[in-house]
Each structure stands twice: as C-alpha cells, then as structure tokens.
C-alpha cells in the first residue's frame, strides 16, 4: 500500500484521534489539527514512539486563514496532500425555542463552514496534483431529524449535500462521507441544554461504539484504489434505531 500524506481535523479527541492512530498504524504520514495543541503534541509523540509518522499544527476550522496555513504547512513539508479528513465538529443540542443562537452559529461555523474551509484549502492543491481524497465526517443526523437536534442535523445534511456536489464536480478527486451513529468521544461533554446533554449522554453510554469503529471505516475508504470512490458509509451501533 502506498504511503499517503493525510490531514485530520479534530484530531485532539474522539473519532479524529482514533483515525490518527489507525492511519499512522497503517504507515501513513498523519498531520494532526485542532485547537488543543497540548493534546495533539502528546498524540504525535506517542505515534512517533510507536514507529509512526506524525506531526501537528494548531487549527481553528472556523478561520479560513488558519485552515489555509494548516494545509500550506503540510504541502510545503511533503510536496503533496493525498487526503483531508474533515472531522472537527461540535454538537450543543437544545430545542429551537430555547433560542440558543450562539450554539446554532457555532455548529454552522464548525460543522459546515469548517468543512467548506477545508475544501477551499485543499481543492486547488488536489486539482493541480490531479488526485486527492476528501473525507467528510457527517452523522446519522445527516439522514434523519430529531427534536433538539434541528440545527445540528441541518449542518450534517448540508455536509452531505456539499459532499455530493463536490463528488459530481470532480473526476480526479475522491469524496467520501462517513456518517457515525452513537460513538464514544467527547462530543456530548460540552455545550447545549444541560438536560438534553444528560439524556444524550445516557443514550450514548448505553449504545456507543468505540471511535476506532469509525476510524476503521475511514481507513477502508482511503485504502481503496484511486478509481474506486467509496461515496457514503454509515457506521452505527447495531442497537441504534
Ligand atoms: N460521537 C458521536 O456519537 C458522533 C456521531 C455522529 C457524528 N459525529 C461527528 O464526528 C466528528 C468528531 O466528533 P467526536 O465524536 O470525535 O467528538 P469530540 O471528541 O468532541 O471531537 C471533536 C473534535 O473537533 C475539534 N474541534 C471543535 N471545534 C474546532 C475548531 N473550531 N477548530 C478545530 N477543531 C475543532 C475538537 O478539537 P479542539 O477542541 O482541540 O479544537 C475535537 O478534536 C464530529 O464532526 C461529529 O459531529 C460524532
């Protein structure tokens, strides 16, 4: 298998961290991005100590210049970018009538605008290379809407829509949407209505699959030959309705 230069956003915890572990173990060069650089540094050191190739750079996906600098740094160091995993996300849930407008804007900024910033940063590079792969992490909430999750679902439906448009417009760049169900991570640790958060945490504690299960799906899509586009994968607990 060829070694790829793979950028992963939201690599400081949960699915991003598990994806970094899986792809580094597969022998790839991983470039870790997130805001908590202490976490990224510790993870990169651990992966390198285990024989992997890892580096990190501070990244705020809501800031286009930050994303461009993250991408340009990796491109300068390695001369190419094979894969971007657009994974960073937040999920502060509440009913719409709670009017938590700041939470709505944060979900739009991180989940949707962040994904678009990633596309804007790597697409010119991948088009010039004549190859590349963008993996967007959506959710089962990209396929169904539930109370308290209207805005979160809207961002994830939008990520699917953008991904499908991106796929149709490009014949040499692969596009994959990976949509997890309940997965163990820090996603429900912060933000939103406290009662809703407690309820989602309880459901997650009962059902959640390990983040490595989603990482394995991402690894599978990346490992396919250049002319095989794994367009959409849904990975959820067997017991999740
Ligand atoms: N866990 C689930 O059940 C589940 C289900 C469906 C979909 N997902 C999706 O999976 C993805 C990963 O989430 P997770 O479950 O692994 O949760 P997590 O453990 O909370 O990880 C979220 C990651 O996003 C990063 N992030 C948040 N805001 C950011 C920003 N402005 N700039 C850069 N990075 C930012 C965080 O890093 P910093 O805070 O260090 O910046 C963190 O590394 C998300 O897109 C989420 O919507 C998760």
Care to describe what's here?
The protein has 241 residues and is an alpha/beta fold. The protein has a single domain (5-234), classed as Rossmann fold, CATH 3.40.50.720. It has helices at residues 14-25, 37-49, 64-78, 101-129, 150-169, 194-207, 211-223, and strands at residues 5-9, 29-34, 53-58, 83-86, 132-137, 173-180, 232-235. The protein has a seven-stranded parallel β-sheet, with helices on both faces. The model has no long low-confidence stretch (mean pLDDT 97). Belongs to the short-chain dehydrogenases/reductases (SDR) family. Keywords: Oxidoreductase. This is Oxidoreductase. Residues 4-185 form the Ketoreductase domain.
Descriptors:
single chain; 241 residues; alpha/beta; Rossmann fold; 7 helices; binds NADP nicotinamide-adenine-dinucleotide phosphate
What is the topological layout?
Blueprint: E1 5-9, H1 14-25, E2 29-34, H2 37-49, E3 53-58, H3 64-78, E4 83-86, H4 101-129, E5 132-137, H5 150-169, E6 173-180, H6 194-207, H7 211-223, E7 232-235
Parallel strand pairs: 1-2, 1-4, 2-3, 4-5, 5-6, 6-7
Helix pairs in contact: 1-7, 3-4, 4-5
Bound molecules: NADP nicotinamide-adenine-dinucleotide phosphate.
């Amino acid at each position: 298998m060829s070694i790829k230069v793979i950028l992963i956003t939201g690599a400081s915890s949960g699915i991003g961290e598990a994806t970094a572990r899986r792809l580094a173990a597969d022998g790839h060069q991983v470039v870790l991005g997130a805001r908590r650089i202490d976490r990224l540094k510790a993870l990169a050191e651990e992966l390198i100590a285990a024989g992997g190739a890892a580096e990190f750079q501070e990244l705020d996906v809501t800031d286009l210049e930050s994303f461009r600098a993250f991408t340009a740094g990796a491109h300068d160091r390695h001369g190419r970018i094979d894969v971007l995993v657009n994974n960073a996300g937040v999920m502060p849930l509440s009913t719409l009538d709670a009017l938590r407008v700041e939470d709505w804007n944060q979900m739009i900024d991180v989940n949707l605008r962040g994904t678009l910033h990633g596309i804007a940063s790597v697409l010119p590079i991948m088009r010039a290379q004549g190859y590349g792969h963008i993996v967007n992490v959506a959710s089962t909430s990209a396929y169904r809407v539930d109370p308290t999750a209207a805005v979160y679902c809207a961002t994830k439906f939008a990520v699917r829509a953008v991904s499908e448009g991106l796929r149709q417009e490009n014949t040499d760049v692969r596009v994959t949407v990976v949509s997890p169900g309940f997965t163990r991570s820090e996603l429900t640790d912060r933000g939103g209505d406290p009662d809703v958060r407690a309820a989602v945490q309880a459901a997650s504690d009962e059902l959640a699959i390990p983040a490595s299960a989603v990482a394995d799906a991402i690894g599978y899509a990346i490992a396919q030959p250049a002319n095989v586009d794994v367009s959409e994968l849904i990975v959820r607990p067997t017991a999740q309705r």
